[in-house]
């Protein structure tokens, strides 16, 4: 059951949505399951939330109807033709916005029968969800703290002969036993030269003496995701990769130093790349610097000096990752990733940072 305080959280989110939208938008249609959870607190595989500035109506099928009636912070009706027609018939608005990144063209054609002007909008909730409220920050903190314990557990299991897949499975079992809902993504456990592949899939490769171990992991706790990457030098450091490790840490610090409200995202990426350029290593940085995180592992904004989000400005209570990396084919790779909360004066980490890492 959603408590009274939580109900207020979801109603405030709906209010924030309207604050973000231009005044010409009279109504909204929300159907993405993650967005529905964000605005209602209900886990639905299917549903339609119809919003005007004065009215909210959630339409669900019989699988969710009783639960929604009991828990929803908005009015609930069965998802039937008559409910849609009645909503539109008693509404004076002519234009209704929908998220064009999440609604299929086929669905758009279906909506035309209601004789309203359905207006494509590319970011109905993108900007709203990017700014986390206190409720979300608490959930993300719980997820991150569990993840940190999972990383420590992995490190305790490192021994010659254990395989990447075995380590990934041990991590999953540990996190589920500790209260995770699920993993945020398939763990990337990469030994030796396998670490040179940023999106590597763990294999039955056994850990050998003096291997580098790249660990990219994440969990989900109460719907909220966490994400971190570390490298461990097993038994003794690899000379060339140890050098890369120090450069990657410098690049991350250069980006973190700019993590204050008002900074343009492109500047973060360029700051990290400038460090790599000084050491003639930028060609080996092959992905963006980071991303937003919350109800999904990868969400708005993407941190890069390229693309349509490059000019997005950091704001207080954004949660992002900063994860520079360098990858040398057939030798190995280093990536170092932390989650941070943008604060009024800078940022803070979500999990304790070991100075020896």
Task: Give a written overview of the molecule.
By secondary structure, the protein is α+β, with helices and mostly antiparallel strands. 34% of the residues lie in helices and 22% in strands. The protein folds into two domains: 4-130, Creatine Amidinohydrolase, Chain A, domain 1; 134-349, Alpha-Beta Complex (Creatine Amidinohydrolase). The strands form six sheets. The protein has a six-stranded mixed β-sheet, with helices on both faces. The chain is elongated and about 70 Å long. The two termini are 42 Å apart. The mean pLDDT is 94.
For the structure shown, list the relevant keywords:
single chain, 357 residues, alpha+beta, Creatine Amidinohydrolase, Chain A, domain 1, Creatine Amidinohydrolase, 10 helices, 19 strands, EC 3.4.11.-, protease, Aminopeptidase YpdF
Order of helices and strands: HEHEEHEHEHEHHHEEEEEEHHEEEEEEE
| Strand line-up in the sheet with most strands | 4-3-2-1-5-6
Distance between the termini: 42 Å
CATH topology of the largest domain: Creatine Amidinohydrolase
Average pLDDT across residues? 94
Largest sheet: 6 strands, mixed
CATH superfamily of the largest domain: Creatinase/methionine aminopeptidase superfamily
CATH class of the largest domain: Alpha Beta
Strand content: 15-25%
Low-confidence stretches: none
Helix % is 25-40%
Class derived from helix and strand content: alpha+beta
- Tally of individual domains: 2
How many extended strands? 19
Q: Under the CATH scheme, which architecture of the largest domain would be assigned?
A: Alpha-Beta Complex
The number of helices is: 10
Radius of gyration: 23 Å
From the spread of the alpha carbons, the general shape counts as: elongated
GO molecular function: aminopeptidase activity
EC number: 3.4.11.-
Domain Creatinase N-terminal: 13-131
Pfam families: Creatinase_N (PF01321), Peptidase_M24 (PF00557)
């Amino acid at each position: 059951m959603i408590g009274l305080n939580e109900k207020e959280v979801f109603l405030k989110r709906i209010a924030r949505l309207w604050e973000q939208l231009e005044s010409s938008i009279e109504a909204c249609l929300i159907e993405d399951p993650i967005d529905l959870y964000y605005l209602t607190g209900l886990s639905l595989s299917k549903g339609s939330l119809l919003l005007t500035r004065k009215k909210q109506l959630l339409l669900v099928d019989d699988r969710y109807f009783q639960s929604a009636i009991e828990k929803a912070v908005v009015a609930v009706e069965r998802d039937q033709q008559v409910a849609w027609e009645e909503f539109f018939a008693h509404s004076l608005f002519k234009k209704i916005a929908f998220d064009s990144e999440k609604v299929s063209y086929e669905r758009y054609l279906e909506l035309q029968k209601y004789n309203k002007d359905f207006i494509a909008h590319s970011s109905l909730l993108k900007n709203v969800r990017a700014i986390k409220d206190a409720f979300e920050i608490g959930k993300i903190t719980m997820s991150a703290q569990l993840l940190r314990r999972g990383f420590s557990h992995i490190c305790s299991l490192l021994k010659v002969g254990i395989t990447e897949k075995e380590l990934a499975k041990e991590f999953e079992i540990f996190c589920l036993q500790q209260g995770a809902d699920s993993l945020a993504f398939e763990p990337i456990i990469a030994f030796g030269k396998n670490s040179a592949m940023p999106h590597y899939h763990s294999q039955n490769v056994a850990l050998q003496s003096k291997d580098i171990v790249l660990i990219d992991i994440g969990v989900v706790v109460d719907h909220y995701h966490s994400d971190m990457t570390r490298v461990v030098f097993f038994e003794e450091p690899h000379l060339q990769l140890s050098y890369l490790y120090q450069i990657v840490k410098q690049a991350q610090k250069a980006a973190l130093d700019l993590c204050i409200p008002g900074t343009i995202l492109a500047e973060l990426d360029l700051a990290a790349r400038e460090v790599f350029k000084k050491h003639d290593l930028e060609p080996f940085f092959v992905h963006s610097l980071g991303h937003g995180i919350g109800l999904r592992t990868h969400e708005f904004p993407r941190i890069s000096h390229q693309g349509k989000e490059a000019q997005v400005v950091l704001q207080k209570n954004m949660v992002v990752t900063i994860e520079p990396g360098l990858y040398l084919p057939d030798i190995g790779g280093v990536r170092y990733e932390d989650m941070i909360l943008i604060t009024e004066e800078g940022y803070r980490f979500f999990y304790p940072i070991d100075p020896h890492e």
